[in-house]
Amino acid sequence: MCDDFTLEQEEAALKRMQLSRREFAARAGALGGVAAVAACAPTDGSLAAPPEGTTVGKMVEFSAEDGTVDAFFVHPASGKHPGVILWPDIAGLREAYEIMATRLAEAGYAVLAMNQYYRSAKAPVLGSFMEWRTDEGRAKLRPMIDQLGSRAVMRDAKAAVAFLDAQEVVDTSRGIGSNGYCMGGPFTVYSTAAVPDRVKAAASFHGGGLVREDEDSPHKLMQKTQASYLFAVAENDDERSPDDKVELRKASDASGRPAEIEVYPAAHGWCTIDSPVYDKAEADRAWERMLVLFWGL
């Protein structure tokens, strides 16, 4: 996940951009438009805000077993659409993920971007990914992370599905999708296991902890679901745990659940727009594979 192993790639990316961590965080945190992040990203592409008026987005609150969840809900301005639960990376729900959720809404989905830390604080808990790399950011999040066991996330997923199914803009005749990044990668599988008759597709981007020994390991839970999967794996994560992709394939075959499993030539965090290792070309390619997956909802 976002640990000292992936820190090396982030340091290399910052060196290429000739920015310090503080400078990168300041630019990303100032996201007064998307251009601030695009200027930092180690790509020659750019990010564009969606056409004005095509989506409607706002912060919402709804009840869950463990408390009141706050989340960002965004959807096309008209019509009914499949719902999607978005699980942010370890730094939590923030403007970068609101932008990413809005982009998915532009593709025709009603997207609920979760604040996974709602038990402790309302979003944004941190303003950017780089705040997680500070001593203060780590100290702030550690006790919050400790509350996010697999069963807790499953309870949250059930509440998220109930919220989506109660919205007029959600087409309940279609399945619900889930996508997640880093920490949120395994949360997508927890979502499919929590409400298997509703959550029918899950896309994990540079997800951590997908293959573990415990019974709630995502690869073991696949057999309890009715979903199709996309596992987009970072090359440095694969270098550290090369057997994970093999175990995911075995789990897919054994459970009969379709899964696309690919190691991307990009570093952990490459799909998150305020990450120093954001790779636009590979992020766009993974995004297109997610849209193919969600097409079947």
Question: How is this structure best described in words?
Answer:
With 297 residues, the protein is an alpha/beta fold. It has a single domain, classed as 3-Layer(aba) Sandwich (Rossmann fold), CATH 3.40.50.1820. It is built from eleven helices and eight strands. It has helices spanning 4-17, 21-29, 34-40, 95-106, 135-145, 150-165, 184-194, 218-221, 235-240, 244-255, 280-295, and strands at residues 55-64, 67-76, 83-87, 110-114, 176-181, 199-205, 228-234, 259-264. It has an eight-stranded mixed sheet with strand order 1-2-4-3-5-6-7-8, sandwiched between helices. Strand 3, helix 4 (95-106) and strand 4 form a beta-alpha-beta unit. Helix 6 crosses helix 7. The longest helix is centred in the middle third of the chain and has 16 residues, at 150-165. The protein is globular, with a radius of gyration of 18 Å. The two termini are 28 Å apart.
Give the gist of this structure.
The protein has eleven helices and eight strands. With 297 residues, the chain is α/β, with parallel strands linked by helices. The protein has a single domain, classed as 3-Layer(aba) Sandwich (Rossmann fold).
What is the CATH first-level class name? Alpha Beta
Radius of gyration: 18 Å
Low-confidence stretches: 9-50
Order of helices and strands: HHHEEEHEHHEHEHEHHEH
CATH architecture: 3-Layer(aba) Sandwich
Number of domains: 1
- Stated plainly, the CATH topology is called Rossmann fold
Overall shape: it is globular
Strand arrangement within the widest β-sheet reads: 1-2-4-3-5-6-7-8
By DSSP, the count of extended strands is 8
| Class derived from helix and strand content | alpha/beta
- Residue-averaged pLDDT, rounded? 87
Task: Name the CATH superfamily assignment.
Answer: Alpha/Beta hydrolase fold, catalytic domain
Taking the sheet with the most strands, its summary is: 8 strands, mixed
Q: In which range does the helix fraction lie?
A: 25-40%
State which percent range the strand residues make up.
15-25%
